[in-house]
Amino acid sequence: MENTQSYTFKAETKQLLNILIHSLYKDKEVFLRELLSNASDALNRLKFELLTNKDVVDVEKELAIHISVDKDKKLITISDNGIGMNRAEIVENLGTIAQSGARNFIELAKQQSSDFSQVIGQFGVGFYSVFMVADSVKVTSRSFSPADTAVQWTASGDETFEVADSNKQDRGTTIEISLKDEFSEFADEYRLREIVHKHSDFIGFPIFIGSDEKQVNKQTAMWRTNKKELTDEQYKDFYRQFTLDFDEPIHTFHNITDAPVQLYSLMFFPSKAERSMFSTRKDDGVKLYSRNILIDEYNKDLLPEYFRFVQGVVDSEDLPLNVSRETIQSSGLLPGLKKVLTGQVFKELENMAKNDSEKYLVFWKEFGLFLKQGIAMNAPEVDKITPLLRFHTSTQEETWTTLDEYIARQPEAAPDVAKHIYYIVGDDPRSIMFSPHLDHYKSQNIEVLLLTEPIDSFMLMGLTKYKEIELKNIAASDEVKTDEEKKEEKEKAETGENKGLIDVFKSVLGEKVADVRVSSTLSTSVARLVDEDGGMNPEMQRVYRYLGKDFDQPKKVLEINTTHPLVEGINALTGQAELQAKLIEQVLDSASILEGVTPDPAKMVQRIQELMSVILEKSK
After folding, report:
1. Which residue, 164, 300, 333, 588, could crosslink 1 as a Cys pair with Cβ 3.0–4.6 Å?
2. What are 540-589's pLDDT values in tens digits?
3. Domains in the chain, start-ordered, CATH in brackets?
4. Contact at 8 Å (CB) between 209 and 188?
Protein backbone atom coordinates (compact mmCIF):
# COMPACT_ATOMS: atom_id res chain seq x y z
CA MET A 1 0.00 0.00 0.00
CA GLU A 2 1.22 3.45 -0.88
CA ASN A 3 1.53 6.33 1.54
CA THR A 4 1.07 4.08 4.58
CA GLN A 5 1.01 5.70 8.02
CA SER A 6 0.77 4.05 11.43
CA TYR A 7 -1.15 5.65 14.29
CA THR A 8 -1.48 4.89 17.99
CA PHE A 9 -4.86 5.15 19.65
CA LYS A 10 -5.09 7.73 22.41
CA ALA A 11 -4.87 6.38 25.97
CA GLU A 12 -8.54 7.01 26.75
CA THR A 13 -9.51 5.50 23.41
CA LYS A 14 -7.58 2.32 24.16
CA GLN A 15 -9.34 1.99 27.51
CA LEU A 16 -12.78 2.46 26.01
CA LEU A 17 -11.95 0.15 23.11
CA ASN A 18 -11.11 -2.61 25.59
CA ILE A 19 -14.50 -2.12 27.28
CA LEU A 20 -16.31 -2.14 23.95
CA ILE A 21 -14.68 -5.38 22.87
CA HIS A 22 -14.87 -7.35 26.09
CA SER A 23 -17.78 -6.26 28.23
CA LEU A 24 -20.12 -3.61 26.87
CA TYR A 25 -22.29 -5.72 24.57
CA LYS A 26 -24.27 -8.68 25.85
CA ASP A 27 -24.92 -10.22 22.42
CA LYS A 28 -22.01 -10.41 20.03
CA GLU A 29 -24.35 -10.34 17.04
CA VAL A 30 -25.01 -6.63 17.60
CA PHE A 31 -21.77 -5.80 15.75
CA LEU A 32 -23.76 -6.20 12.52
CA ARG A 33 -26.51 -3.93 13.79
CA GLU A 34 -23.96 -1.22 14.53
CA LEU A 35 -22.23 -1.48 11.18
CA LEU A 36 -25.57 -1.39 9.33
CA SER A 37 -26.61 1.63 11.40
CA ASN A 38 -23.42 3.38 10.34
CA ALA A 39 -24.01 2.44 6.71
CA SER A 40 -27.54 3.84 6.97
CA ASP A 41 -26.06 7.01 8.45
CA ALA A 42 -23.63 7.35 5.53
CA LEU A 43 -26.45 6.88 3.01
CA ASN A 44 -28.62 9.47 4.72
CA ARG A 45 -25.78 11.96 4.75
CA LEU A 46 -25.29 11.48 1.02
CA LYS A 47 -29.04 11.89 0.49
CA PHE A 48 -28.76 15.23 2.24
CA GLU A 49 -25.75 16.24 0.16
CA LEU A 50 -27.59 15.45 -3.07
CA LEU A 51 -30.29 17.98 -2.21
CA THR A 52 -27.90 20.82 -3.06
CA ASN A 53 -24.95 19.20 -4.84
CA LYS A 54 -25.00 16.96 -7.93
CA ASP A 55 -21.20 17.02 -8.41
CA VAL A 56 -20.93 13.64 -6.67
CA VAL A 57 -19.16 10.39 -7.57
CA ASP A 58 -21.68 7.84 -8.98
CA VAL A 59 -24.47 10.40 -8.72
CA GLU A 60 -27.09 8.12 -10.32
CA LYS A 61 -26.30 4.97 -8.34
CA GLU A 62 -29.10 3.49 -6.18
CA LEU A 63 -28.51 3.89 -2.48
CA ALA A 64 -28.16 0.47 -0.87
CA ILE A 65 -26.18 -1.82 1.46
CA HIS A 66 -24.63 -5.11 0.29
CA ILE A 67 -23.28 -7.95 2.45
CA SER A 68 -21.23 -10.89 1.19
CA VAL A 69 -19.67 -13.90 2.94
CA ASP A 70 -16.69 -16.15 2.31
CA LYS A 71 -17.39 -19.07 4.60
CA ASP A 72 -14.05 -20.80 4.06
CA LYS A 73 -12.02 -17.70 4.86
CA LYS A 74 -14.43 -16.64 7.65
CA LEU A 75 -14.77 -13.26 5.96
CA ILE A 76 -17.71 -10.84 5.96
CA THR A 77 -17.81 -7.84 3.63
CA ILE A 78 -20.27 -4.97 4.15
CA SER A 79 -20.49 -2.25 1.49
CA ASP A 80 -22.52 0.93 1.19
CA ASN A 81 -22.44 3.65 -1.44
CA GLY A 82 -23.02 6.45 0.99
CA ILE A 83 -21.10 9.63 1.78
CA GLY A 84 -17.70 7.92 2.07
CA MET A 85 -14.57 9.31 3.76
CA ASN A 86 -11.27 10.82 2.72
CA ARG A 87 -8.00 10.27 4.57
CA ALA A 88 -8.51 13.03 7.14
CA GLU A 89 -12.06 11.92 7.87
CA ILE A 90 -11.19 8.25 8.29
CA VAL A 91 -8.43 9.10 10.78
CA GLU A 92 -10.76 11.39 12.69
CA ASN A 93 -13.82 9.12 12.65
CA LEU A 94 -12.17 5.74 13.19
CA GLY A 95 -9.16 6.87 15.17
CA THR A 96 -11.02 8.56 17.99
CA ILE A 97 -13.90 6.88 19.78
CA ALA A 98 -16.91 9.13 20.30
CA GLN A 99 -15.79 11.39 17.47
CA SER A 100 -18.30 11.26 14.66
CA GLY A 101 -18.84 13.04 11.40
CA ALA A 102 -22.51 12.15 11.84
CA ARG A 103 -22.67 14.31 14.95
CA ASN A 104 -21.70 17.38 12.95
CA PHE A 105 -24.20 16.41 10.26
CA ILE A 106 -27.05 16.17 12.78
CA GLU A 107 -26.29 19.70 13.95
CA LEU A 108 -26.38 20.83 10.32
CA ALA A 109 -29.63 18.96 9.64
CA LYS A 110 -31.34 20.68 12.58
CA GLN A 111 -30.83 23.99 10.83
CA GLN A 112 -32.60 22.77 7.68
CA SER A 113 -36.31 22.56 7.01
CA SER A 114 -36.17 18.96 5.74
CA ASP A 115 -36.63 15.90 7.95
CA PHE A 116 -33.34 14.09 8.53
CA SER A 117 -34.62 11.93 11.36
CA GLN A 118 -33.05 8.78 9.92
CA VAL A 119 -29.54 9.96 10.71
CA ILE A 120 -27.84 7.64 13.18
CA GLY A 121 -25.18 9.17 15.37
CA GLN A 122 -22.27 7.77 17.36
CA PHE A 123 -20.51 6.36 14.26
CA GLY A 124 -17.11 5.98 15.83
CA VAL A 125 -18.43 4.20 18.92
CA GLY A 126 -20.67 1.59 17.29
CA PHE A 127 -18.02 0.73 14.73
CA TYR A 128 -15.64 -0.68 17.33
CA SER A 129 -18.11 -3.36 18.42
CA VAL A 130 -16.82 -5.27 15.37
CA PHE A 131 -13.67 -6.20 17.31
CA MET A 132 -15.74 -8.43 19.58
CA VAL A 133 -15.82 -10.96 16.73
CA ALA A 134 -12.96 -9.87 14.44
CA ASP A 135 -9.28 -10.73 14.30
CA SER A 136 -8.76 -7.82 11.96
CA VAL A 137 -10.82 -5.24 10.10
CA LYS A 138 -10.12 -3.41 6.85
CA VAL A 139 -12.13 -0.34 5.90
CA THR A 140 -11.82 1.01 2.37
CA SER A 141 -13.60 4.24 1.56
CA ARG A 142 -14.02 6.71 -1.29
CA SER A 143 -15.52 10.10 -0.55
CA PHE A 144 -18.49 11.45 -2.53
CA SER A 145 -16.28 14.35 -3.64
CA PRO A 146 -14.59 13.76 -7.03
CA ALA A 147 -11.57 15.71 -5.76
CA ASP A 148 -10.83 13.19 -2.99
CA THR A 149 -8.92 9.93 -3.36
CA ALA A 150 -9.77 6.57 -1.77
CA VAL A 151 -8.24 5.49 1.52
CA GLN A 152 -7.80 2.24 3.44
CA TRP A 153 -7.82 1.78 7.23
CA THR A 154 -6.71 -1.46 8.94
CA ALA A 155 -6.61 -2.51 12.59
CA SER A 156 -6.76 -5.62 14.76
CA GLY A 157 -8.15 -4.11 17.95
CA ASP A 158 -4.80 -3.54 19.63
CA GLU A 159 -3.06 -0.20 20.25
CA THR A 160 -2.43 0.83 16.65
CA PHE A 161 -4.08 1.22 13.23
CA GLU A 162 -2.74 1.93 9.74
CA VAL A 163 -3.99 4.23 7.00
CA ALA A 164 -2.91 4.00 3.34
CA ASP A 165 -4.00 5.07 -0.14
CA SER A 166 -6.42 2.83 -2.06
CA ASN A 167 -7.46 2.42 -5.68
CA LYS A 168 -11.20 2.12 -4.91
CA GLN A 169 -13.06 3.88 -7.71
CA ASP A 170 -16.73 3.73 -6.62
CA ARG A 171 -18.20 5.96 -3.91
CA GLY A 172 -18.86 4.68 -0.39
CA THR A 173 -17.34 2.43 2.25
CA THR A 174 -16.47 -1.29 2.30
CA ILE A 175 -15.71 -3.07 5.56
CA GLU A 176 -13.96 -6.47 5.45
CA ILE A 177 -14.16 -8.44 8.68
CA SER A 178 -11.85 -11.39 9.31
CA LEU A 179 -13.67 -13.38 12.00
CA LYS A 180 -12.09 -15.04 15.00
CA ASP A 181 -12.41 -18.82 14.90
CA GLU A 182 -14.93 -18.93 17.73
CA PHE A 183 -17.26 -16.60 15.82
CA SER A 184 -17.25 -18.40 12.48
CA GLU A 185 -21.05 -18.82 12.88
CA PHE A 186 -21.39 -15.28 11.48
CA ALA A 187 -19.79 -16.31 8.18
CA ASP A 188 -23.14 -17.72 7.15
CA GLU A 189 -25.72 -15.93 5.01
CA TYR A 190 -28.70 -17.46 6.84
CA ARG A 191 -27.33 -16.34 10.24
CA LEU A 192 -26.79 -12.80 8.95
CA ARG A 193 -30.34 -12.68 7.58
CA GLU A 194 -31.59 -13.61 11.05
CA ILE A 195 -29.68 -10.72 12.59
CA VAL A 196 -30.92 -8.24 9.98
CA HIS A 197 -34.55 -9.30 10.58
CA LYS A 198 -34.10 -9.01 14.32
CA HIS A 199 -32.25 -5.71 14.59
CA SER A 200 -32.23 -3.82 11.29
CA ASP A 201 -35.36 -4.85 9.43
CA PHE A 202 -36.60 -1.28 9.15
CA ILE A 203 -33.49 0.59 8.07
CA GLY A 204 -34.61 3.02 5.39
CA PHE A 205 -32.39 1.60 2.62
CA PRO A 206 -32.43 -1.84 0.95
CA ILE A 207 -30.06 -4.49 2.34
CA PHE A 208 -28.89 -7.35 0.10
CA ILE A 209 -27.01 -10.48 1.22
CA GLY A 210 -24.89 -12.60 -1.12
CA SER A 211 -25.80 -12.90 -4.79
CA ASP A 212 -29.53 -12.89 -4.02
CA GLU A 213 -31.14 -9.88 -5.65
CA LYS A 214 -34.07 -10.03 -3.24
CA GLN A 215 -34.03 -7.35 -0.57
CA VAL A 216 -33.58 -8.80 2.94
CA ASN A 217 -35.03 -6.04 5.10
CA LYS A 218 -38.61 -4.76 5.06
CA GLN A 219 -37.28 -1.18 4.92
CA THR A 220 -40.66 0.48 5.53
CA ALA A 221 -41.56 0.60 9.21
CA MET A 222 -45.33 0.18 9.44
CA TRP A 223 -45.51 2.18 12.67
CA ARG A 224 -44.06 5.19 10.84
CA THR A 225 -46.62 4.91 8.04
CA ASN A 226 -49.75 7.07 8.00
CA LYS A 227 -52.70 5.06 9.34
CA LYS A 228 -54.81 6.08 6.35
CA GLU A 229 -52.42 4.23 4.05
CA LEU A 230 -52.76 0.91 5.90
CA THR A 231 -55.49 -1.73 5.83
CA ASP A 232 -56.81 -4.01 8.56
CA GLU A 233 -55.30 -6.96 6.73
CA GLN A 234 -51.85 -5.33 6.74
CA TYR A 235 -52.08 -4.82 10.49
CA LYS A 236 -53.12 -8.45 10.95
CA ASP A 237 -50.26 -9.67 8.76
CA PHE A 238 -47.78 -7.61 10.74
CA TYR A 239 -49.15 -9.01 14.02
CA ARG A 240 -48.85 -12.59 12.78
CA GLN A 241 -45.27 -12.04 11.66
CA PHE A 242 -44.44 -10.12 14.81
CA THR A 243 -45.81 -12.70 17.26
CA LEU A 244 -46.34 -15.94 15.31
CA ASP A 245 -49.82 -15.86 16.85
CA PHE A 246 -52.22 -16.93 14.13
CA ASP A 247 -55.27 -15.78 16.05
CA GLU A 248 -56.22 -12.18 15.41
CA PRO A 249 -55.34 -9.69 18.17
CA ILE A 250 -58.23 -8.54 20.32
CA HIS A 251 -57.35 -4.93 19.57
CA THR A 252 -54.85 -2.93 17.52
CA PHE A 253 -53.96 0.73 17.93
CA HIS A 254 -51.49 2.86 16.01
CA ASN A 255 -50.41 6.32 17.18
CA ILE A 256 -48.02 8.96 15.91
CA THR A 257 -47.47 11.90 18.25
CA ASP A 258 -45.29 15.00 18.12
CA ALA A 259 -45.90 16.41 21.59
CA PRO A 260 -44.97 16.25 24.40
CA VAL A 261 -42.51 13.77 22.84
CA GLN A 262 -42.04 12.52 19.29
CA LEU A 263 -43.31 8.99 19.28
CA TYR A 264 -44.43 6.25 16.91
CA SER A 265 -46.25 3.28 18.40
CA LEU A 266 -48.04 0.23 17.02
CA MET A 267 -49.53 -1.82 19.84
CA PHE A 268 -51.65 -4.94 20.21
CA PHE A 269 -53.79 -6.64 22.84
CA PRO A 270 -53.02 -10.30 22.02
CA SER A 271 -55.66 -12.96 21.61
CA LYS A 272 -54.48 -14.90 24.66
CA ALA A 273 -52.81 -14.04 27.95
CA GLU A 274 -50.50 -17.05 27.70
CA ARG A 275 -47.89 -17.03 24.95
CA SER A 276 -48.07 -20.04 22.65
CA MET A 277 -45.17 -22.46 22.24
CA PHE A 278 -44.53 -20.91 18.81
CA SER A 279 -44.39 -17.33 20.05
CA THR A 280 -41.35 -15.28 19.08
CA ARG A 281 -41.76 -13.31 22.29
CA LYS A 282 -39.81 -15.00 25.10
CA ASP A 283 -40.34 -12.26 27.66
CA ASP A 284 -42.67 -9.39 28.51
CA GLY A 285 -42.03 -5.90 27.18
CA VAL A 286 -42.37 -3.93 23.97
CA LYS A 287 -39.78 -3.56 21.23
CA LEU A 288 -38.05 -0.22 21.52
CA TYR A 289 -36.56 1.39 18.43
CA SER A 290 -34.67 4.62 17.94
CA ARG A 291 -35.03 5.96 14.40
CA ASN A 292 -35.86 2.49 13.05
CA ILE A 293 -32.98 0.74 14.86
CA LEU A 294 -33.89 -1.86 17.51
CA ILE A 295 -32.23 -0.99 20.81
CA ASP A 296 -34.23 -3.10 23.27
CA GLU A 297 -36.20 -6.20 22.35
CA TYR A 298 -38.02 -6.49 25.70
CA ASN A 299 -38.37 -3.06 27.24
CA LYS A 300 -40.25 -3.21 30.54
CA ASP A 301 -39.91 0.47 31.46
CA LEU A 302 -42.34 1.99 28.95
CA LEU A 303 -45.55 0.59 30.44
CA PRO A 304 -46.64 -0.27 34.00
CA GLU A 305 -46.13 -3.90 34.98
CA TYR A 306 -49.87 -4.57 34.94
CA PHE A 307 -49.88 -3.70 31.21
CA ARG A 308 -47.14 -6.24 30.48
CA PHE A 309 -49.50 -8.21 28.24
CA VAL A 310 -49.36 -5.42 25.63
CA GLN A 311 -47.20 -6.27 22.64
CA GLY A 312 -45.90 -3.95 19.97
CA VAL A 313 -43.33 -1.47 18.79
CA VAL A 314 -42.31 1.94 20.12
CA ASP A 315 -40.01 4.24 18.17
CA SER A 316 -38.86 7.69 19.25
CA GLU A 317 -36.91 10.34 17.41
CA ASP A 318 -35.76 11.95 20.64
CA LEU A 319 -34.38 8.87 22.34
CA PRO A 320 -30.81 9.38 23.58
CA LEU A 321 -28.63 6.25 23.53
CA ASN A 322 -25.52 5.32 25.39
CA VAL A 323 -22.44 4.06 23.59
CA SER A 324 -23.72 0.50 23.25
CA ARG A 325 -27.28 1.36 22.14
CA GLU A 326 -28.38 -1.36 24.61
CA THR A 327 -29.49 0.86 27.42
CA ILE A 328 -30.97 4.32 27.47
CA GLN A 329 -29.11 7.19 29.02
CA SER A 330 -30.58 8.54 32.20
CA SER A 331 -32.72 11.42 31.09
CA GLY A 332 -36.16 12.80 31.57
CA LEU A 333 -37.41 11.23 28.36
CA LEU A 334 -38.31 7.70 29.52
CA PRO A 335 -40.85 8.86 32.13
CA GLY A 336 -42.38 11.08 29.47
CA LEU A 337 -42.63 8.21 27.00
CA LYS A 338 -44.14 5.97 29.68
CA LYS A 339 -46.76 8.58 30.56
CA VAL A 340 -47.80 9.00 26.92
CA LEU A 341 -47.93 5.25 26.19
CA THR A 342 -49.79 4.43 29.40
CA GLY A 343 -52.31 7.14 28.56
CA GLN A 344 -52.76 5.65 25.10
CA VAL A 345 -53.48 2.18 26.51
CA PHE A 346 -56.02 3.57 28.99
CA LYS A 347 -57.72 5.57 26.24
CA GLU A 348 -58.08 2.46 24.08
CA LEU A 349 -59.49 0.43 26.97
CA GLU A 350 -61.93 3.16 27.97
CA ASN A 351 -63.17 3.59 24.39
CA MET A 352 -63.51 -0.16 23.93
CA ALA A 353 -65.45 -0.52 27.20
CA LYS A 354 -67.76 2.34 26.26
CA ASN A 355 -68.29 1.67 22.55
CA ASP A 356 -67.81 -2.07 22.11
CA SER A 357 -68.81 -3.88 25.29
CA GLU A 358 -68.72 -7.35 23.70
CA LYS A 359 -65.15 -6.87 22.55
CA TYR A 360 -64.20 -5.47 25.94
CA LEU A 361 -65.60 -8.53 27.71
CA VAL A 362 -63.44 -10.74 25.47
CA PHE A 363 -60.50 -8.65 26.64
CA TRP A 364 -61.64 -8.73 30.27
CA LYS A 365 -61.97 -12.51 30.44
CA GLU A 366 -58.41 -12.86 29.16
CA PHE A 367 -56.65 -9.91 30.79
CA GLY A 368 -58.83 -8.72 33.68
CA LEU A 369 -56.38 -10.40 36.04
CA PHE A 370 -53.70 -7.86 35.04
CA LEU A 371 -55.92 -4.86 35.82
CA LYS A 372 -56.73 -6.34 39.21
CA GLN A 373 -53.01 -6.69 39.79
CA GLY A 374 -52.65 -2.96 39.12
CA ILE A 375 -55.13 -2.30 41.94
CA ALA A 376 -53.30 -4.73 44.24
CA MET A 377 -50.00 -2.99 43.51
CA ASN A 378 -51.61 0.31 44.51
CA ALA A 379 -50.56 1.76 41.17
CA PRO A 380 -50.80 5.55 40.71
CA GLU A 381 -53.49 4.91 38.10
CA VAL A 382 -55.89 3.10 40.48
CA ASP A 383 -58.63 5.65 39.81
CA LYS A 384 -58.34 4.94 36.08
CA ILE A 385 -58.24 1.17 36.51
CA THR A 386 -61.23 0.82 38.83
CA PRO A 387 -63.96 1.83 36.31
CA LEU A 388 -62.52 -0.81 33.96
CA LEU A 389 -63.15 -3.64 36.45
CA ARG A 390 -65.98 -6.08 35.80
CA PHE A 391 -67.83 -8.28 38.33
CA HIS A 392 -70.41 -11.01 38.64
CA THR A 393 -72.92 -10.29 41.41
CA SER A 394 -75.51 -12.15 43.44
CA THR A 395 -78.28 -10.75 41.21
CA GLN A 396 -76.27 -10.75 37.96
CA GLU A 397 -74.58 -14.16 38.08
CA GLU A 398 -74.24 -14.73 34.33
CA THR A 399 -73.43 -11.19 33.21
CA TRP A 400 -70.70 -8.69 34.01
CA THR A 401 -71.28 -5.38 35.73
CA THR A 402 -69.29 -2.26 36.56
CA LEU A 403 -69.16 -0.59 39.94
CA ASP A 404 -71.08 2.36 38.48
CA GLU A 405 -73.86 0.03 37.33
CA TYR A 406 -73.88 -1.65 40.74
CA ILE A 407 -74.28 1.69 42.51
CA ALA A 408 -77.06 2.76 40.13
CA ARG A 409 -79.06 -0.39 40.99
CA GLN A 410 -78.94 0.05 44.76
CA PRO A 411 -82.46 0.34 46.23
CA GLU A 412 -83.55 3.91 46.77
CA ALA A 413 -85.74 2.80 49.66
CA ALA A 414 -82.72 1.64 51.66
CA PRO A 415 -80.51 4.70 52.28
CA ASP A 416 -78.14 2.75 54.55
CA VAL A 417 -77.39 0.31 51.75
CA ALA A 418 -76.21 3.06 49.43
CA LYS A 419 -73.41 3.83 51.87
CA HIS A 420 -71.61 0.61 51.03
CA ILE A 421 -70.60 -1.65 48.15
CA TYR A 422 -71.03 -5.19 49.44
CA TYR A 423 -68.88 -8.12 48.39
CA ILE A 424 -68.16 -11.72 49.28
CA VAL A 425 -64.92 -13.60 48.65
CA GLY A 426 -64.96 -17.31 47.84
CA ASP A 427 -62.91 -20.03 46.23
CA ASP A 428 -65.44 -21.38 43.74
CA PRO A 429 -67.79 -19.39 41.49
CA ARG A 430 -70.20 -22.34 41.43
CA SER A 431 -70.58 -22.69 45.19
CA ILE A 432 -70.24 -19.11 46.41
CA MET A 433 -73.95 -18.53 45.79
CA PHE A 434 -74.68 -21.12 48.50
CA SER A 435 -72.64 -19.22 51.08
CA PRO A 436 -74.59 -18.66 54.29
CA HIS A 437 -73.30 -15.09 54.35
CA LEU A 438 -75.65 -14.32 51.44
CA ASP A 439 -78.82 -15.40 53.26
CA HIS A 440 -79.90 -12.01 54.54
CA TYR A 441 -78.81 -10.16 51.39
CA LYS A 442 -80.80 -12.50 49.16
CA SER A 443 -83.89 -12.12 51.33
CA GLN A 444 -83.61 -8.32 51.14
CA ASN A 445 -82.69 -8.35 47.43
CA ILE A 446 -79.43 -6.55 48.18
CA GLU A 447 -76.81 -7.04 45.46
CA VAL A 448 -73.39 -8.40 46.43
CA LEU A 449 -70.21 -8.59 44.32
CA LEU A 450 -68.95 -12.17 43.90
CA LEU A 451 -65.14 -12.36 44.08
CA THR A 452 -63.78 -15.83 43.38
CA GLU A 453 -60.27 -15.38 41.92
CA PRO A 454 -57.14 -15.63 44.10
CA ILE A 455 -56.04 -12.16 42.94
CA ASP A 456 -59.25 -10.67 44.38
CA SER A 457 -57.99 -10.87 47.96
CA PHE A 458 -54.87 -8.96 46.92
CA MET A 459 -56.92 -6.46 44.94
CA LEU A 460 -59.07 -5.69 47.98
CA MET A 461 -55.95 -4.50 49.80
CA GLY A 462 -55.90 -1.55 47.40
CA LEU A 463 -59.62 -1.22 46.65
CA THR A 464 -61.30 -0.05 49.85
CA LYS A 465 -63.67 2.53 48.39
CA TYR A 466 -65.01 3.79 45.07
CA LYS A 467 -66.34 7.31 44.60
CA GLU A 468 -66.22 7.72 48.38
CA ILE A 469 -68.42 4.63 48.85
CA GLU A 470 -66.80 2.11 51.16
CA LEU A 471 -66.51 -1.56 50.21
CA LYS A 472 -67.74 -4.02 52.85
CA ASN A 473 -67.16 -7.75 53.20
CA ILE A 474 -70.48 -9.36 54.16
CA ALA A 475 -68.57 -12.16 55.92
CA ALA A 476 -67.20 -9.71 58.44
CA SER A 477 -70.42 -8.79 60.30
CA ASP A 478 -74.08 -7.89 59.89
CA GLU A 479 -73.45 -4.78 57.83
CA VAL A 480 -77.02 -4.07 56.70
CA LYS A 481 -78.66 -3.91 60.08
CA THR A 482 -78.41 -1.10 62.58
CA ASP A 483 -76.65 -1.67 65.89
CA GLU A 484 -79.96 -1.33 67.72
CA GLU A 485 -81.63 -3.95 65.53
CA LYS A 486 -78.74 -6.37 66.09
CA LYS A 487 -78.87 -5.82 69.85
CA GLU A 488 -82.62 -6.44 70.05
CA GLU A 489 -82.46 -9.59 67.92
CA LYS A 490 -79.51 -10.94 69.88
CA GLU A 491 -81.25 -10.41 73.25
CA LYS A 492 -84.39 -12.07 71.95
CA ALA A 493 -82.52 -14.99 70.35
CA GLU A 494 -80.29 -15.79 73.29
CA THR A 495 -82.97 -16.25 75.92
CA GLY A 496 -84.75 -19.32 77.21
CA GLU A 497 -84.35 -22.48 75.16
CA ASN A 498 -81.94 -20.86 72.69
CA LYS A 499 -79.55 -20.04 75.51
CA GLY A 500 -79.43 -23.68 76.52
CA LEU A 501 -78.65 -24.69 72.92
CA ILE A 502 -75.83 -22.15 72.76
CA ASP A 503 -74.37 -23.58 75.95
CA VAL A 504 -74.39 -27.08 74.44
CA PHE A 505 -72.58 -25.86 71.30
CA LYS A 506 -69.99 -24.04 73.40
CA SER A 507 -69.46 -27.09 75.60
CA VAL A 508 -68.86 -29.36 72.58
CA LEU A 509 -66.70 -26.99 70.54
CA GLY A 510 -64.72 -25.47 73.37
CA GLU A 511 -61.65 -23.57 72.18
CA LYS A 512 -62.20 -24.48 68.53
CA VAL A 513 -64.26 -21.27 68.21
CA ALA A 514 -64.04 -17.82 69.71
CA ASP A 515 -67.74 -17.81 70.56
CA VAL A 516 -71.12 -19.28 69.61
CA ARG A 517 -74.15 -17.10 69.13
CA VAL A 518 -77.56 -17.05 67.54
CA SER A 519 -77.54 -15.47 64.10
CA SER A 520 -79.74 -12.48 63.37
CA THR A 521 -79.34 -12.82 59.59
CA LEU A 522 -79.38 -16.51 58.60
CA SER A 523 -82.61 -17.71 57.04
CA THR A 524 -81.94 -20.81 54.90
CA SER A 525 -78.44 -21.85 56.05
CA VAL A 526 -77.57 -23.83 59.16
CA ALA A 527 -74.62 -21.78 60.37
CA ARG A 528 -71.83 -19.46 59.38
CA LEU A 529 -68.40 -18.42 60.67
CA VAL A 530 -67.57 -14.75 61.15
CA ASP A 531 -64.48 -12.96 62.41
CA GLU A 532 -64.25 -11.34 65.80
CA ASP A 533 -64.23 -7.57 65.78
CA GLY A 534 -60.69 -6.21 65.66
CA GLY A 535 -59.12 -9.44 64.40
CA MET A 536 -57.21 -10.10 61.17
CA ASN A 537 -59.56 -9.26 58.32
CA PRO A 538 -60.72 -12.07 55.98
CA GLU A 539 -58.87 -10.64 52.96
CA MET A 540 -55.53 -10.74 54.75
CA GLN A 541 -56.18 -14.29 55.93
CA ARG A 542 -56.75 -15.41 52.32
CA VAL A 543 -53.67 -13.53 51.14
CA TYR A 544 -51.54 -15.37 53.71
CA ARG A 545 -53.02 -18.71 52.64
CA TYR A 546 -52.40 -18.04 48.95
CA LEU A 547 -48.82 -17.01 49.68
CA GLY A 548 -48.27 -20.12 51.78
CA LYS A 549 -47.23 -18.02 54.77
CA ASP A 550 -47.48 -19.35 58.28
CA PHE A 551 -49.86 -17.41 60.47
CA ASP A 552 -52.04 -18.09 63.47
CA GLN A 553 -55.47 -18.83 62.02
CA PRO A 554 -57.76 -16.66 64.15
CA LYS A 555 -60.59 -18.38 65.91
CA LYS A 556 -63.96 -17.45 64.48
CA VAL A 557 -67.41 -16.93 65.90
CA LEU A 558 -69.95 -19.61 64.96
CA GLU A 559 -73.40 -18.18 64.34
CA ILE A 560 -76.24 -20.69 64.20
CA ASN A 561 -79.72 -20.49 62.74
CA THR A 562 -81.98 -21.70 65.56
CA THR A 563 -84.98 -21.89 63.24
CA HIS A 564 -83.33 -24.33 60.83
CA PRO A 565 -84.72 -27.92 61.07
CA LEU A 566 -81.25 -29.38 61.51
CA VAL A 567 -80.46 -27.12 64.45
CA GLU A 568 -83.89 -27.79 65.93
CA GLY A 569 -83.20 -31.51 65.55
CA ILE A 570 -79.84 -31.19 67.32
CA ASN A 571 -81.55 -29.30 70.12
CA ALA A 572 -84.10 -32.07 70.47
CA LEU A 573 -81.48 -34.80 70.99
CA THR A 574 -81.77 -34.74 74.78
CA GLY A 575 -80.15 -37.77 76.32
CA GLN A 576 -78.08 -38.50 73.20
CA ALA A 577 -75.04 -36.41 73.99
CA GLU A 578 -72.60 -38.39 71.83
CA LEU A 579 -74.72 -38.10 68.66
CA GLN A 580 -75.46 -34.47 69.44
CA ALA A 581 -71.73 -33.73 69.77
CA LYS A 582 -70.92 -35.38 66.43
CA LEU A 583 -73.59 -33.31 64.66
CA ILE A 584 -72.37 -30.08 66.25
CA GLU A 585 -68.77 -30.83 65.22
CA GLN A 586 -69.98 -31.51 61.67
CA VAL A 587 -71.84 -28.19 61.60
CA LEU A 588 -68.55 -26.45 62.42
CA ASP A 589 -66.55 -28.40 59.82
CA SER A 590 -69.16 -27.74 57.12
CA ALA A 591 -69.08 -24.02 57.89
CA SER A 592 -65.26 -24.09 57.81
CA ILE A 593 -65.24 -25.67 54.34
CA LEU A 594 -67.51 -22.90 53.06
CA GLU A 595 -64.95 -20.39 54.38
CA GLY A 596 -62.14 -22.07 52.43
CA VAL A 597 -60.59 -23.63 55.52
CA THR A 598 -60.08 -27.40 55.35
CA PRO A 599 -60.71 -29.25 58.61
CA ASP A 600 -59.01 -32.53 59.54
CA PRO A 601 -60.23 -34.78 56.67
CA ALA A 602 -59.58 -38.09 58.49
CA LYS A 603 -61.64 -37.09 61.52
CA MET A 604 -64.41 -35.63 59.37
CA VAL A 605 -64.68 -38.72 57.16
CA GLN A 606 -64.82 -40.98 60.20
CA ARG A 607 -67.49 -38.80 61.79
CA ILE A 608 -69.62 -38.75 58.60
CA GLN A 609 -69.42 -42.55 58.40
CA GLU A 610 -70.57 -42.82 62.01
CA LEU A 611 -73.49 -40.48 61.35
CA MET A 612 -74.42 -42.49 58.24
CA SER A 613 -74.40 -45.64 60.36
CA VAL A 614 -76.84 -44.01 62.80
CA ILE A 615 -79.16 -43.11 59.94
CA LEU A 616 -79.03 -46.62 58.50
CA GLU A 617 -79.67 -48.14 61.92
CA LYS A 618 -82.78 -46.00 62.43
CA SER A 619 -84.07 -46.86 58.95
CA LYS A 620 -84.26 -50.59 59.76
Report:
1. 164
2. 666 666 666 666 677 889 999 999 999 999 999 888 999 999 999 999 99
3. 5-209 (3.30.565.10), 222-346 (3.30.230.80), 391-473 (3.40.50.11260), 494-529+554-619 (1.20.120.790)
4. no
